Amino acid sequence: MVRGEGCRVFDDSGRSYLDGLAGLYVVQVGHGRRELAEVAARQASELAFFPIWSYAHPAAIDLAERLAHYAPGDLNRVFFTTGGGEAVESAWKLAKQYFKITGKPTRHKVISRAIAYHGTPQGALAITGVPELRTPFEPLVPGAFKVPNTNAYRAPDHLSGDLKAFGRWAADRVEEAILAEGADTVAAVFVEPVQNAGGCFPPPPGYFERLREICDVHDVLLVSDEVICAFGRIGSMFACDDFGYVPDIITCAKGMTSGYSPIGAMIVSERLFEPFTHGSTSFLHGYTFGGHPVSAAVGMANLDIFESEKINEYVRAQSPVFRATLEKLLDLPIVGDVRGEGFFFGIELVKDKATKETFDEVESERLLRGFLSRALFEGGLYCRADDRGDPVVQLAPPLVAGPAEFDEIEQILRGVLTEAWARL
Ligand SMILES: Cc1ncc(COP(=O)(O)O)c(C=O)c1O
């Protein structure tokens, strides 16, 4: 790919594709925004680099203040990284050190959900629940345990059809894991507001309310991994606001700059920061490029666009239109489920709609890697056919996409999925 403009990218032969994935859940305000490139150039001319270990620079200060302003509750303390995996890694390390210096040194374990993706550094990879990504690097960091995710389409039989009961059941599995490990050994629970890997699992009603309650009762930190969901993807700056909970830590990255320069962050509550304000205690962790001046300046300009163009309001208004357009595909025999929130949807493909039977290993390989990804791409749609779990097509276009793009996505998918069914 050599160029981007709005919701489209262009390859080296000049052919254009609809960017159905905002790069990789990143390019929120769309491609080709000259003003963001110009801000980057200005900042690089003024102060290209200075580490924020001991002295700060205005761009990082401004961005930290702005993130704290958007974050809920007293999540006012911002620690910059260069991406999402580093933010997750930082959160686990912070949780460990926090409990060590507050007299609970045995609290070091973490809980996360099956098939969830949280990044590739060794700690984040241990939190990640995708078996194929973990196996080649075992043994991983010990102390990371998995619980069921919120895949309502595949809810246990006795709960299917009752979302609230399913949500309660799924949240209670976290408490079960905390108790099984011993509450005084558990430091944190890592969850995405809407889980991406596995195919877009929104939280059932009551899920986060119950999860917050469980974390409070057992003094376990709730980490909201918003690397995908923050910055308008669901319709608010931070998606915990979309679902009405206040975590102890938010991890974020991707959309903060709409990808015009890399940056990530961990945002923590005052309670977690306080023990680090005493004497010579400090969080013994950091990245040379964390809070890079160019990225921080671009982040500010990107968030200015969010404000001036009312991006979050737009996502909230257009999300039902996007959903309704994708739901038209439910008339195809291969489309089992359309689910998601905001500008973030997954379409689950099945072999039998009535029984929800999925594809076996060989069919999956043939359908997803052998045909779908390529056919969608050749049809002019860049998106993702994923089978880290059951086969799904994932869609998350730039947040400036509208009904014309939704229709184009639906049309291309309709053609390709019809052919896929015929080939089975
Ligand atoms: C929820 C979540 N956490 C963490 C990460 C890792 O982020 P990065 O690739 O910037 O390290 C990702 C990446 O897709 C993600 O989706």
Give a structural overview.
By secondary structure, the chain is an alpha/beta fold. The protein folds into 2 domains: 3-29 and 310-423, Aspartate Aminotransferase, domain 1; 34-308, 3-Layer(aba) Sandwich (Aspartate Aminotransferase, domain 2), CATH 3.40.640. 40% of the residues lie in helices and 16% in strands. The chain has helices spanning 22-25, 34-46, 58-70, 84-101, 122-127, 131-134, 163-181, 207-218, 239-243, 270-273, 293-308, 311-327, 361-378, 403-423; strands at residues 3-5, 8-10, 16-19, 75-81, 109-113, 144-147, 186-191, 221-225, 249-252, 264-269, 335-341, 344-349, 381-382, 384-386, 392-395. The chain has a 7-stranded mixed beta sheet with strand order 4-10-9-8-7-5-6, with helices on both faces. A 4-stranded mixed beta sheet has the order 1-2-3-13. A 4-stranded antiparallel beta sheet has the order 11-12-15-14. α9 (239-243) links the parallel β8 (221-225) and β9 (249-252). α3 (58-70) packs across α11 (293-308), α7 runs parallel beside α8 and α12 (311-327) runs parallel beside α14 (403-423). The radius of gyration is 21 Å and the shape is globular. The two termini are 31 Å apart. The model has no long low-confidence stretch (mean pLDDT 96). Bound molecules: pyridoxal-5'-phosphate.
